[in-house]
Amino acid sequence: MKDTLTVEEREDIEIELLLQAIYSVSGFDFRKYMRSSIKRRVENRMRLDHIRRISGMIEMVLYEKGYVEKLLNDFSINVTEMFRDPDFFKAFRLKIVPLLKQLPEIRIWHAGCSTGEEAFSMAILLKEEGLYEKAKIYATDMNEDILSHAEKGILPLNRMQSYTKNYLQAGGKQEFSEYYTTDYQNAYLNSSLLKNIVFFQHNLVTDGSFNEFHIILCRNVMIYFTGELQTYVNHLFYDSLSKKGFLAVGSKETLHTSSLSEDYEDFDSKERIYRKL
Description:
three-stranded antiparallel β-sheet; alpha/beta; SAM-dependent_MTases_sf; 19% strand
């Protein structure tokens, strides 16, 4: 029998118990997220709230109203921007758009959409290619607060210069400023860009398929998942794609190690775009 545990071993046990408490209280399951990512966020919250031990956070999750929501916001990954990775959107425009023009309708799922910038970027691209009117964009995230912000189509004005640069590098065909209005603080996307985007809550860990899609984008989300959870989510995407549908993942993600790798064509290896066979 082991007499003592190291500090790291104790912390690992506490994190397991914390994630179980969060799941029991909220239904949100982070137990199969990468521990390194979870640990960074837990340590940051401990500093902010002046908590000495993770066990103190467990008590607050169980007994302090609203605390679990605070942790859910901490754990939600909200790194995004308009036309992020411009080369991806350029490849999408050049290689996938011609194929989409043959379809009577287009269904696109942005999984883990955060504040919506990727979905807005797609709306602009489709509008420029004459495809937006026959497209429906489903943008989902597990974080309700983030979604309520996203559906307003409000962007920080101080980011618009870098967003414009991304747009031009992605092959934009208009003046980017045509797509929004501004005041002294924010940029407001034209309402015509929002009409075919549906934002709603969906948890990749616990929720199932809800439609059949021609395109699924889940970029830079699964890097925070364990291998087991990545396999589960990849199967969810496979089941949600139409035949010959496209799956786009992040630059640090791949299907090559997945049991589904033989069920996809490596459509654009550089931009991590796969096509279901």
